[in-house]
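Researcher: We plan to redesign the surface later, but first we want a full-length starting point. Tokens attached.
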């Protein structure tokens, strides 16, 4: 490089040296702050990027899974690879470090095991677990991944996503897996579960991950309202065999209500600490 060219390249340090990379990152950031998928024209207009460039960059990102194209709506949203980035951030400790004392306090108050999870594609990954004394070990150990649609933590986060985003993640029955033979197996069944979660603000799971265990979870939202994580409590429920009774049903409902309130308080505390909602 001759001196004049070198001077031109370094004279303005704020000017992007790789325009395509700069535009790609701006598009990803823009999509991350939207409540749902948007049209390419909206991206081009809001970011002042030529529409043809936006289409080329979106196509390249879609090929790598960072965005998805909802053809019927002619809109673009974040893809599963973008969620992997969020999981990578979580694995680098900031969220886990902030959440660990909150989850430990939740386990103490609930007298049951508690954990913190993040979304990675169609899975949840557990980044903090606190087992209560004299409680059995769970499959939700740190680093373990489970299908999001089967877990309370996953359902809490999925319910906080735009409906179009959920549809992109679970387009058909092939996207669903099972562990115990229970849980949603079709998009319509998942939509019904998430509708109830949005109504109550609490996600539940009963034997879909491990037979005989139940969980409740509440989403932790970041500053943009996006699901950054979910806090959950898991306990050993009725293992089966006994006929349910009215008093038993009432006791179970009261238990769920109490643990849900504790999980909601912990989720709100963590949201405040990460500057979220």
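Model: Full-length starting sequence:
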């Amino acid at each position: 490089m001759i001196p004049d060219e070198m001077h031109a390249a370094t004279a303005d340090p704020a000017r992007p040296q790789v325009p395509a990379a700069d535009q790609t990152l701006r598009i990803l950031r823009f999509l991350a702050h939207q409540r749902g998928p948007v049209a390419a024209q909206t991206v081009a207009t809001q970011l002042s990027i030529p529409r043809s460039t936006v289409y080329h960059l979106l196509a390249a990102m879609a090929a790598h899974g960072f965005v998805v194209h909802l053809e019927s709506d002619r809109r673009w949203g974040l893809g599963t690879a973008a969620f992997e980035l969020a999981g990578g951030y979580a694995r680098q400790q900031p969220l886990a470090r902030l959440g660990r004392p909150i989850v430990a306090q939740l386990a103490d108050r609930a007298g049951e095991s508690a954990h913190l999870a993040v979304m990675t594609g169609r899975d949840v990954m557990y980044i903090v677990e606190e087992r209560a004394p004299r409680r059995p070990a769970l499959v939700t150990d740190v680093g373990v991944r489970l299908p999001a649609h089967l877990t309370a933590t996953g359902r809490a986060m999925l319910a906080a996503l735009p409906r179009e985003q959920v549809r992109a993640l679970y387009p058909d029955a092939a996207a669903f897996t099972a562990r115990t033979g229970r849980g949603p197996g079709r998009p319509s069944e998942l939509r019904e579960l998430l509708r109830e979660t949005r109504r109550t603000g609490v996600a539940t799971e009963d034997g879909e991950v491990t037979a005989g265990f139940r969980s409740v979870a509440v989403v932790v939202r970041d500053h943009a309202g996006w699901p950054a994580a979910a806090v959950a409590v898991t306990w050993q429920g009725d293992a089966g065999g006994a006929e349910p009774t009215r008093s038993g049903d009432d006791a179970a409902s009261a238990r769920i209500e109490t643990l849900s309130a504790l999980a909601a308080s912990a989720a709100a505390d963590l949201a405040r600490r990460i500057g979220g909602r």
